[in-house]
Each structure stands twice: as structure tokens, then as C-alpha cells.
Design a protein that fits this description.
Elements (H helix, E strand, L loop, with lengths): L1 E6 L1 H4 L2 H16 L3 E6 L2 H10 L6 E2 L2 E2 L3 H12 L1 H19 L1
Parallel strand pairs: 1-2
Antiparallel strand pairs: 3-4
Helix pairs in contact: 2-5, 3-4, 4-5
Length: about 100
């Protein structure tokens, strides 16, 4: 079976929630399922923009993304946020293979 799992940015900041998600995903993979994991990161992006002195702008709940915001989003989402769920998941999968 194929699954798509969405990990929201706020959930990525909760270690016990992230650990539970990585356990569940590893179990799905171990059982032969194909799992695609997508992540949020709006919380982390807003925090980084604030640290850089740039205020986030939203219209009807959607972030307005100018070129500068886009560049910061790429840095945050493809860097730190991407690695947070991936590293513990790979570690869990590797430990299950060697067990």
C-alpha cells in the first residue's frame, strides 16, 4: 500500500510526537508499504524571517512570498526542517534492519 504522511511544522517541534511519527512510519515501511513523507515548516520559516528582521505577511491565510522570503523559505525548508524528520527516521529504519 502507498501512504503520504504530512508532518506539520508545529509537530516537528514536539520531540515525543516526532518520535511517535517516525516509529509509525518505520513500521509501515517495515511491513512493505511505500511511504512518502512531506513536511510543513511555516512555524520555523516565520521564526527565521523574524530573526532576520522581516515580517511575515499573510492574505486570506496564505503567506505572501516575495523573492527574499522565497530564498529564506528554501534555506529553512530544504535545510534544517527537512533533516529533522529524516534523520531519526533513517536511524530507526537502520536499527530495524540490523536487528
Amino acid at each position: 500500500m502507498k501512504y503520504v504522511v504530512k508532518l506539520g511544522g508545529a509537530g516537528l517541534e514536539n520531540p515525543s510526537l516526532l518520535a511517535g511519527c517516525t516509529r509509525a512510519i518505520a513500521d509501515l515501511v517495515r511491513d512493505g508499504n511505500q511511504v512518502a513523507v512531506v513536511h510543513g515548516g511555516g512555524v520555523q520559516l516565520t521564526r527565521m524571517l523574524t530573526a532576520l528582521g522581516k515580517q511575515s505577511e499573510f492574505i486570506a491565510g496564505l503567506r505572501v512570498t516575495d523573492a527574499e522570503t522565497r530564498d529564506v523559505a528554501l534555506m529553512v525548508l530544504a535545510g534544517k526542517v527537512k533533516q529533522e524528520p529524516v534523520a531519526p527516521l533513517w536511524a530507526r529504519l537502520a536499527s530495524r534492519r540490523s536487528a
